[in-house]
Design goal:
It is a single chain. By secondary structure, the chain is α/β, with parallel strands linked by helices. 31% of the residues lie in helices and 21% in strands. The strands form eleven sheets. A five-stranded parallel sheet has the order 5-2-1-9-21. It is globular, with a radius of gyration of 31 Å. The relative contact order is 0.06.
């Protein structure tokens, strides 16, 4: 029998977790979903357009009932879960429906905070969280005139705007001195207030609600403030904040504090069979209400439910990219400033633009933008990466376009464009079509927009404009593929165009490529020549001639040059394992050539640092070990743990697996350096989760992960496939690396290659297409067959040994 997974809560966070789980492990679970509302999963962010009459409920549904049927998911709508028997592991709804579980996922969301003032239970007093609340407000607007919204945050202002568009006279009552105090400073809030008042909203700030007063029929008739003033109200909307919905969790004995307390795997700290995601979860003391963090949680939780879990949720850097009644706002970080900080401010009230940047210790730590949010994503990136901005300070206020990126300057057009204005000339897509697709399909990423509309899917020149439309329409974080750009200043041709020309025209030499593509600079430069040389060798192995002068110094000398002009030598040790004989030879070489430093590397190899260039050939000969290619854009190391041979936790022989991988791939050149690791169990001591290819042993075989990176910006590898045998590991890993060799751009790491082409593309070529995978593996074997070791076969490797001769007697 399949294990049983029950999801309580049919909202965006819970169903996104299911989507990620079904992508990773389709068919692994029998899944049952309980949703309190009578609707399938819908986009809660788009309730405001429904209230304003711009969209219908049907248009904001993300996953129709057919989606649940297609994936074999049992859906119970209109079913409020009232109890969970944790001993028997059974979920029970109020109407008696039950479902047993092996894993339980709580995604109960949040509830509106209702002010505990007299009259808060009167007819006509509503929260604003779901479709029922929205429909009740629409019905009230058809029968009544006066509305009061309590709360001047984002939700309150959107509710007020929607009711005003429905014809009501609306007053917003806000306790704090200015609107949206959590997202805006006082100056930006002042501009927002002026704009909203021009539209007809009445705004009362610094006003405390004392009571809600009843009329003769028992329905609310007025809101009374602390100063005794009464504001007519046939409808009162409570939008004074939200609280995590933890009633069920508390009832069944889960630890709750500002939400259901979870660890970095989104597992509850009380019961390891129960997980929680979304607004109901409290991670490291924080509950998140924005969609981007919830989707990050969903991805991590799904990997653990799928038993592929190496990911950890470490919290989210939160920014507020908002659209309040047609006005664009952005804030992130410490936008209010603080001790030791300084502000850079641009204010143009006439144009409705306000920008405030907060700096501390030469870092951007906060930003508040009103009216012009084109550079919001760039500012947020500067904050996340904590980059020094001293060199940018004079131009920082003018955004990324102020740095000379002409392509970025046109992105501010997105706000001014009419709906019938063409955005993507290649595919004839107008702005209105993109906006409708984002709203109707619930799109959140650039790739989703491309898939549904084809905008920016061809030449890519309109990508920046599409990104801005996406931000203005939906808000939130999204991933954009790198823009196509020329290989270097010597040509207008892109990396892909160079690759295509070499393949289609069967070009075999650097000069031939330059002639065919009409290079502006006859001999090229240090950027384009190595790239062309790699593309030739990877496209036509054994045919194209290697051009040593089109390689960097490290690859010409087959060693790493150091800051003092000496070199380092890293002999290869298969899977990190060595022997007494190898260690003796290394020690003898160190003494014989007076090598000043010997260091163990992070990849489990020994690095001999400070070797003179003229000694390199003799050092290689005396070592008698293969080149570690630590100098090359090639396979560097395969890191291993001791695995099942020695470790009491090991489930697979990771050392032998690593050695087999390294022996199969060790002479492979690639667009960039490649690092592998093999861990013998999910404890992952070899750090397989941050390698270009990571292999993790589990009881039933091996999990393969790809596109990790442990550099300046750590990227966790993504799950590719689970296999049973060593041979399957080698074939899948080799096929992935050959695909990267054939499609990756020179100096593009695997993490960026996969981000550009998409993991689904890789899966189709490497996992789903068995024949294609075999062909990729065979092409890699053909390219590697009988390649010489440059240390020990310099003649066959065409190593120019004259470069090692000293210019003067030593």
């Amino acid at each position: 029998m399949k294990p049983r997974l029950v999801l309580v809560g049919n909202g965006m966070a819970g169903v996104r977790t299911l989507e990620e789980l079904l992508r990773l492990a389709p068919g692994m679970y029998d899944i049952t979903v309980f949703g309190a509302e009578p609707y399938p999963n819908y986009n809660r962010i788009l309730l405001s357009p429904v209230l304003a009459g711009e969209q219908t409920v049907e248009q904001i549904v993300l996953n129709p009932r057919a989606w649940y049927e297609e994936h074999g998911v049992t859906l119970h709508t209109g079913a409020t879960v009232v109890d969970v028997d944790r001993r028997r592991r059974v979920v029970r709804a109020a109407d008696g429906r039950e479902a047993p579980y092996d894993r339980l996922l709580l995604a109960t969301g949040s509830r509106s905070f209702v002010l505990p003032v007299p009259g808060h239970q009167l007819d006509g007093v509503l929260g604003y969280r779901d479709i029922a609340d929205t429909q009740a407000m629409i019905d009230a607007a058809a029968r009544h005139v006066h509305a009061v919204v309590i709360g001047g945050g984002l939700l309150g202002l959107e509710a007020a705007n929607g009711l005003m568009l429905r014809g009501m006279q609306v007053t917003v009552v806000h306790l704090m001195p200015w609107l949206m105090e959590r997202q805006l400073d006082e100056s930006a809030a002042g501009l927002l207030r002026a704009s909203l008042e021009q539209r007809g909203l009445r705004l009362l700030t610094g006003a405390r609600t004392r009571a809600l007063l009843a009329g003769p029929s028992g329905r609310v008739r007025a809101v009374q403030l602390d100063d005794g003033a009464e504001i007519p109200a046939d409808l009162v909307v409570m939008a004074a904040g939200i609280r995590p919905e933890t009633a069920l969790a508390e009832r069944i004995g889960l630890h709750c504090r500002n939400g259901v307390v979870v660890d970095d795997t989104l597992q509850t700290v009380t019961d390891p069979r129960i997980y929680a995601v979304g607004e109901c979860a409290a991670h490291r003391g924080t509950s998140y209400g924005l969609v981007a963090p919830l989707f990050e949680q969903a991805k991590v939780c799904a990997t653990h439910l799928a038993c592929f879990g190496i990911g950890r949720y470490a919290g989210s850097a939160v920014s507020a990219k908002l659209k309040v009644t047609g006005i664009d706002l952005f804030s992130a970080g410490e936008f209010m400033g603080g001790p030791g900080s300084e502000d850079i401010v641009l204010a143009d009230p006439g144009a409705g633009v306000y920008k405030k940047l907060v700096l501390r210790d030469d870092r951007l730590v906060g930003a508040c933008l009103y009216g012009d949010t084109v550079d919001a994503a760039w500012y947020f990136k500067l904050m996340r990466e904590a980059r020094p901005v001293g060199a940018l300070r004079e131009r920082l206020m003018f955004g990324e376009s102020g740095l000379g990126d002409a392509g970025h300057q046109g992105q501010s057009k997105a706000l001014a464009l009419a709906d019938d204005a063409e955005v993507c000339g290649c595919n004839g897509v107008c702005k209105g079509a993109i906006v409708r697709a984002i709203k109707e399909q619930g799109l959140f990423t650039l790739e989703e927009v491309r898939r549904h509309t084809k905008a920016s899917a061809s030449c890519g020149s309109c990508t920046g404009l599409v990104e801005q439309i996406l931000m203005f329409t939906a808000g939130g974080d999204y991933s954009a593929a790198p823009r196509a750009k020329a290989l270097c200043a010597c040509t207008d041709a892109t990396h892909q165009q160079v690759r295509d020309a070499i393949r289609e025209q069967h070009l075999l030499a650097v000069d031939a490529v330059m002639r065919f593509l009409e290079w502006r600079t006859p001999n090229g430069c240090a950027s384009c020549r190595p790239a062309i040389n790699y593309y030739l060798l990877s496209t036509w192995p054994r045919e194209a001639a290697d051009d040593p002068q089109s390689r960097f110094i490290n690859e010409r000398a087959h060693a790493n040059i150091q800051k003092d002009g000496s070199f380092s030598v890293v002999p290869r040790m298969w899977g990190g394992e060595t022997s007494a004989a190898e260690l003796r030879r290394i020690a003898d070489v160190v003494e014989r050539y007076a090598i000043p430093s010997v260091k163990v590397t992070g990849g489990q190899r020994i690095d001999l640092l400070g070797v003179r260039k003229q000694d390199l050939p003799a050092v290689w000969k005396d070592l008698g070990m293969p080149s570690g290619h630590a100098y090359a854009k090639a396979l560097r190391t395969v890191k291993t743990c001791v695995g099942s041979q020695w470790c009491r936790f090991g489930t697979q022989d990771s050392t032998r697996m690593g050695q087999q991988l390294e022996r199969a791939l060790w002479r492979m050149v690639a667009p960039h350096k490649v690092k592998l690791a093999v861990s013998g169990c999910p404890r992952n001591c070899a750090e397989s989760g941050i390698k270009d290819v990571g292999v993790i042993g589990v009881e039933s075989g091996w999990e393969i992960y790809v596109a990790g990176n442990g550099g300046i910006k750590t990227e966790v590898a993504q799950f590719l496939v689970k296999v049973a045998t060593h041979e399957q590991v080698i074939e899948h890993a080799g096929a992935f690396l050959q695909l990267y060799r054939e499609e990756g751009w020179y100096l593009e790491r695997t993490v960026h290659y996969v981000a550009r082409v998409g993991l689904e593309h890789v899966r189709r070529r490497v996992v789903d297409d068995a024949a294609g995978r075999q062909e990729l593996w065979e092409r890699l074997q053909f390219a590697l067959a009988d390649l010489p070791d440059p240390w020990h076969e310099p003649e066959r490797a065409a190593v120019d040994t004259r470069q090692f001769l000293p210019l003067l007697p030593t």
